[in-house]
Write a structure and sequence with these properties.
The structure is a homodimer of 374-residue chains. Helices cover 33% and strands 24% of the residues of chain A. With 374 residues, chain A is α+β, with helices and mostly antiparallel strands. The first copy, chain A, folds into 3 domains: 78 residues, Rossmann fold; 64 residues, Dna Ligase, domain 1; 191 residues, 2-Layer Sandwich (D-amino Acid Aminotransferase, Chain A, domain 1), CATH 3.30.470.20. In chain A, the strands form 3 sheets. In chain A, strands 7, 8, 9, 10, 11, 12, 13, 14 and 15 form a 9-stranded antiparallel sheet that branches. In chain A, strands 3-6-4-5 form a 4-stranded antiparallel sheet, with helices on both faces. Chain A has a two-stranded parallel sheet with strand order 1-2. In chain A, a hairpin with a 2-residue loop joins strand 9 and strand 10. The first copy, chain A, starts with 5 loop residues before the first helix and ends in a 5-residue tail after the last helix.
Amino acid sequence: MVGGGQLARMTYQAAIPLGVTLRVLSERADDGAALVSADVEIGSHTDLEALRRFAAGCDVVTFDHELAPPELLEKLAGEGHVLRPSPAAMRFAQDKLWQREQFGALGLPVPAHAVVATAEDVAAFATDHGGWPVVIKAARGGYDGRGVWVARSPEDAARVVAEGSAGGLRLFAEAMVELEREVAVLIARRPGGESVVYPVVETVQADGMCRELVSPAPIDPSVAAHARNIAERIADGIGVTGIMAVELFVAKGGDVLVNEIATRPHNSGHHTIEGCVTSQFENHVRAVLDWPLGSTAPAAPAVVTVNVVGGASGGDPRANLPRALAVPGVHVHLYGKGPRPGRKLGHVTALGEDVSEVRERADRAAAILVGEPA
Amino acid sequence: MVGGGQLARMTYQAAIPLGVTLRVLSERADDGAALVSADVEIGSHTDLEALRRFAAGCDVVTFDHELAPPELLEKLAGEGHVLRPSPAAMRFAQDKLWQREQFGALGLPVPAHAVVATAEDVAAFATDHGGWPVVIKAARGGYDGRGVWVARSPEDAARVVAEGSAGGLRLFAEAMVELEREVAVLIARRPGGESVVYPVVETVQADGMCRELVSPAPIDPSVAAHARNIAERIADGIGVTGIMAVELFVAKGGDVLVNEIATRPHNSGHHTIEGCVTSQFENHVRAVLDWPLGSTAPAAPAVVTVNVVGGASGGDPRANLPRALAVPGVHVHLYGKGPRPGRKLGHVTALGEDVSEVRERADRAAAILVGEPA
């Protein structure tokens, strides 16, 4: 697995019972996965020689992130290494504009959007699509709220475009969706096309970052079926292998629109570790090795995962862990990182019959971990 | 953790989300836990210098087996290393005769037993305790049926005593219990005495080795309560820290007798990984670090674990894994070992509503793994 973050760390954990050695290419020896893996290569995903050395020891190369340059991935694939997902499938996660354009062409529901190069382009888009605010996104490089701006006026738009152009970013404008809620669908797909879809999960966002997962999402069954169908169409459409996460907007009125996808295990699937029969991490390993996929059935009527995000007070979850473990029946996952405001340090999952009761426990443990009131 | 077998391997897996680095002292680099741990020291548990080097890097030293010589453990403890469980508690698991004598003195129900040095001693024991057969056990060194013999006649007894004496074993005779079934109780206990007890599990044995776990055990609730109470009395009586497994005989008529204990994670608790809210491995880590213990509540009405034991045909679970994963909803755990007849290579757990349906799936997957008919 290229990348040594928490996704690789949790994939490593899932690979142990399968008897699979998960080799990790990690930039730093103290990255989350590098701390736990018995087979670590230190090197950068932007260094072709490091990627080659790494891939030489792997049956299959897969990814903890989509940051490796496409041209290097093409090179590796051309040299005979088995990359799952393929560089062509990864491109959809690497380039949001490409994703929007292709999904539109596939007939999938996406927000109205247009490439913008100037503030005037944004203003024209606003005029054509219900006025301000307008969302401006960078085609590449964004995550956790980075690379996304909300322009509330022509002046906002001018500032974003100037900054983006200075940074060499390709930008596009997007109609702001009046949200009922955001949801995600995870799907695991084998090279031959066999796939399993997880129940739709609600992703509660704050400051552009997912803070909480609620499974099943409290949405109408027909909306859930539609969301799952969209995920299946995308998975087949781009020919993904492994886990793919589709983040979706549920608009007021019930319309479902594709926000973006990730072609790897994803933060919106952490509840699956205890909350489904087979975790996203195990199914990712099974899918990229072309093994039969595991059941995605829920393990309890209500599952809530709360992300543990570094707070202003700098509380360290590693120090607060024993107190958090006193909360009944919570599953704490720490990623081996030091605290920093806004940094994802871990997550807490709780299961039960009643979503309010379950959420209360997960919230409480997560708050204790960062030393802040729930 | 001293010892690099599958118990350390599964403890390593459980330690990852807690952010705990499980350092492993392993005899061989290809032992199950040595294959997956990022922090391995190769060395023997019978070598004081290796134990010292290992312990120097640990906050707490715990164990995957009870084979380290008591005098070395005493030495480490005397030098200030924190051993959990303590050498005094470990002695009960290391010496079956000591265990029998002390448990009898504590008023716990144990089979009738007596030290034997000659065939005549065994014959006298038979005369006093209902005749033949008589069980003969070695005080030390037995597991998975080793160190246990069934003498059906004075001639059998003479042979066992001669062999045992030649091998320098201390032997004792024990009345053969007419069994209804065998069960086990796992308990996790912190240094201060706080403990949590798991539901009683049935352990189905063949050839002296546990082949299958069924949780909850199909026994009368009063018998289960009695078994759990015995486990709590033993845990407090010997002052164990960490997981302790108590293997019990349920005699025809409902009497419960202590067979033996292990002061570490145990094969009779593998179903707890998916089958209980908190696994025995996670609770072992939490207990030895003196952290609050996790819920032992069952995750489903019926949980069955089937051990994957190497068969005569030499089928390799690593090769058969993909086919086994096609069985719906099974959790396969491989220990990273090559196949050998009678060797524990892994286990399979299934959860559900109905024990027959659950057992059928677990059995089927386990049989596929060793390439034999279920």
